[in-house]
Each structure stands twice: as structure tokens, then as C-alpha cells.
Amino acid sequence: MKLFDVYPLYDVNPEKAKDVFIYDNHGNEYIDLYGGHAVISIGHSHPEYIKNIYRQLNKIGFYSNSVKNHLQEQLADSIVKYSGCEEYSLFMCNSGAEANENALKLASIHTGKSRIIAFKNSFHGRSNAAIAATDFKKFHSKLENRLDVTFINLNDSKTLENEIKKGDVCAVLLESIQGYGGLDEPNEDFVLLINSLCKKYNSCLIADEVQSGFGRTGKFFAFQEYKIKPHFICMAKGMGNGFPVGGLLINSIIKSEHGMLGTTFGGNHLACVASLTVLNVIEKEELQQNAREIGKYFIKNAKQIPEIINIKGRGLMLGLEFNNEVKEIRKKLIYDKKIFTGSSGNKNLLRILPPLTIKKRHIDIFFKSLKEVI
Ligand SMILES: Cc1ncc(COP(=O)(O)O)c(C=O)c1O
Q1: 72-127, pLDDT tens digit by residue?
Q2: Burial call 344-354: b when 16+ CB within 10 Å, e when fewer
Q3: Which of 24, 242, 268, 283 has the most CB atoms within 10 Å of its CB?
Q4: Pocket test for ligand 1, best of 131, 211, 212, 317 (most atoms within 8 A of CB)
Q5: Residue 207: inside a domain, yes or no?
Q6: How far, in Å, is the centroid of ligand 1 from the Cα of 219?
């Protein structure tokens, strides 16, 4: 049977990986500046991660959400401890799209409204409401086009206010730093305005931290750059370091009811242990601090290269914009220089999303290689 052909693939077949390195089936070593799409947070095959998951697998790997799972409670407490987000409860699921989908649904139930405000160049996932709130029409079908979504330019305060004022908006869905869209950010005034307008007009603010969360930008959540309190905080990717796990933090003003949300696999024992290990290692190895430091070092180096016209992002969620498409640069980096990088909706932008354990010496190799291929 053939694979359903939806991914344009590089001809590289990773067989094993360790920290920031990937090894293909011919034994070639690659530096991973892509993190499997911002997923690898504490490094590939971290010994503590392997040990903890293995140990848990020997106890119990899965049981349904119809019985207690103390690991979920432990994870909820740990997320509060590391993020400082109090007055929230945790619902666990399996992916970023699912986290956003559940947040949008709860926002609609809570407000009794159904219109969504999202932003130009947003990406929120492939499920129905998440894709409807994604501003890349090439991913849409007629199904999700039935949902009522208004797309606004980042920092267009006037349009935002005019739209929320209409009183029918259940949620504003925001990436504090856009991922797939190309690393653009709203300014602080605009973020504060969203926060206050949501309160004033009974709409929910959903922080999509699926890509930017769990320390990637140097803060635990990217929105913590600002003094705001989202109704929902959606998480996935770095939360599990490769184990499929997602979740949402739900503000205590949102009331739960039995049956409101549900999932078979979400929050299983292995997912909880994966995420608990990620949190412990982020703290023990000071990876948030590393993300901040290496991010600054990366930007300093990028500024020396005249072909780079724009440097975007924070911490280890970064983008380098060129005057031309980066497709050929990425090809040369992966095949000739053995370095993985990422693309984005902006074809001129190279995305850098390495494991949070990356060191200056890896960044030096990257820039030496980049200079040779551009
Ligand atoms: C900001 C953001 N939200 C949501 C998603 C969807 O996550 P998933 O692919 O886990 O469903 C992504 C994936 O790239 C993302 O970057």
C-alpha cells in the first residue's frame, strides 16, 4: 500500500537521534535546528525521558478517563509551578489542533456566541474550528467554511474594536508569535487591547501556545511577555518532547460540566510522564534561560549577514527573512551541510526551532554553513 501523499519529503531517513543531533540510515549526523517542528524541547532521547517513560510503561501505560489518574493532577500542579498560571484547570488531549478546538468550543458554550476573531497569517491546526480560524485558504474545505470567522490584521486596533463591539464574538484566537505564518508578532498595546476588549464585551481570549509554549521563547508561555490573563491557554508540541500530548489551561471563570469535553487517549499515563519529565528537565537544565541566551547569540550572528533582511522571533522560535525564496538554501543546508531547518507560509523565511538544549557551538556551525550556501 502507498502512503497518502500529502507531504513534500526530503530524502532523509532518520534512524536515531541524540540531543540536538539526528542520524540517518547511512550513519550521517545532522544538526537539528527544526526540532521536528518545534516539538523537541529537552533534546532527542534525553536519558531521564527514556528512563521515566520506560518505568511508567512497566507499571501502566494507559487507562481511560473514566477512572482517576493521579499523574494528571501531578502534571496540573507542575504546570502551575513552572508557568505561574494560577486559577486555571487542566484538560488534556492529544494535539495542538485538539487543544484549540476544545478551547473554541468552551468559549462558545461560555459566552453563548459563535463568531471567532483570528488574525491574518494565523495557523491553528487541521480540525474543523481550528482550520476555520487558520488564514491559509489552501488548507480549507467547504466544511469549515461554514464557521463564522473574521480575520483581522495584527495591530489593527480599530477593526478589532469595531468587530468585538458587535457583541457576537465568542473568542479571539491569538498566537503571541506566529508560527507557520512567519514569526510576526502583535505589539504590546494591541495585545493589551485584545485582553481588555474581551473582558468588556464578554468574549474569550485564547492564547495559542502550541508552538511557543513550554519555554521555547525564553518565557514559559510567550504571552507572558505581556500583562494579560487569557481565558484559555492551548499547549502541545514541546509539552511532550515527541510524545503526542496536548492540553488546555482553562480559567476558573469557565464552569465545567460532566460530558462537556472528552477524549479516549488524552492524558494517558505515558503522556503525563512525558510532560512531567519535560518540565523537570527544563527546570534542572535551565533551558528557558538557555533559550533566551542562545536566541540573543543567534540574532547577533544573523545581523552580520547582509543577505538577511529581517530577523524575527524570540528565544529559540526564530525566523530569518531573505529577499528570495529559501527553498534552495534549505535543500543545500540539509543535503550538503547536514543541518535541518524549517520553512513557513512566508516562502522567503527560514525557520529555526531547535531543541532548547542547543549550544553556541552548534549556532556557529550553522552560520558558517549558511554563509557558504547563500
Ligand atoms: C500555533 C499552532 N497552533 C496549532 C497547531 C496545530 O498543532 P497539531 O499539529 O499538534 O494539531 C500548530 C502546528 O503547527 C501551531 O503551530
Answers
A1: 999 999 999 999 999 999 999 999 999 999 999 999 999 999 999 999 999 999 99
A2: bbbebbbbbbb
A3: 268
A4: 211
A5: yes
A6: 19
User: What's the gap in Å between 211 CA and the centre of ligand 1?
Assistant: 6
- Domain assignment present for residue 28? The answer is no
Residues of the chain with pLDDT under 70: none
- Cell 522567503 identifies what position? 348
What is the domain extent for residue 307?
Answer: 33-45+286-373
Dihedral (CA of 262, 252, 256, 201) sign? negative
Residue 51's identity, in one-letter code, is K
H or E stretch covering 99 = helix 96-111
**How far apart are the CA of 121 and the centre of ligand 1, in A?**
13
Q: State the amino acid at position 213 in one-letter form.
A: G
For the beta carbon of residue 125, count every other beta carbon within 10 angstroms.
23
Rounded to whole angstroms, the Cα distance separating 251 from 177 reads: 22
Q: pTM score > 0.90 for this model?
A: yes
